[in-house]
Specification:
Elements lengths: L9 E6 L2 E8 L2 E12 L2 E8 L2 E6 L2 E5 L1 H18 L1
C-alpha cells in the first residue's frame, strides 16, 4: 500500500511498479479499479491500439512491452482474487 494522504476515497496498492486504486469501504476494501503504472504525470492506464499496447496518462505515453502487459494482468488478477 502506498501512502497517499491526499486521496481519501481510495487506497493505492502497488506491486512491481504497477498500481491500482481500491475504494475505501466501511468494512475495509471496496471495488478495485483498473491497474496501470504510476508516472511523473500521474496514473497511466493500459490501452490497446491495434496490435500494440500503451501506458497512457495526461502528457505521457509509453509503449508497453508484452512482458509488462502479462505482469500487469497477473497483478490485477491477484488483486481481484485477494479482495474478493
Amino acid at each position: 500500500m502506498l501512502p497517499a494522504a491526499e486521496i481519501t476515497t481510495h487506497y493505492v496498492l502497488e506491486r512491481d511498479g504497477f498500481v491500482a486504486l481500491v475504494e475505501r469501504a466501511a468494512n475495509g476494501f471496496g471495488g478495485v479499479g483498473s491497474a496501470g503504472i504510476l508516472t511523473g504525470s500521474g496514473f497511466a492506464a493500459l490501452i490497446r491500439r491495434g496490435e500494440r499496447s500503451y501506458f497512457v496518462a495526461k502528457n505521457f505515453e509509453q509503449e508497453a512491452q508484452p512482458e509488462q502487459v502479462a505482469a500487469l494482468r497477473r497483478f490485477s488478477a491477484d488483486l481481484n482474487a485477494a479482495l474478493d
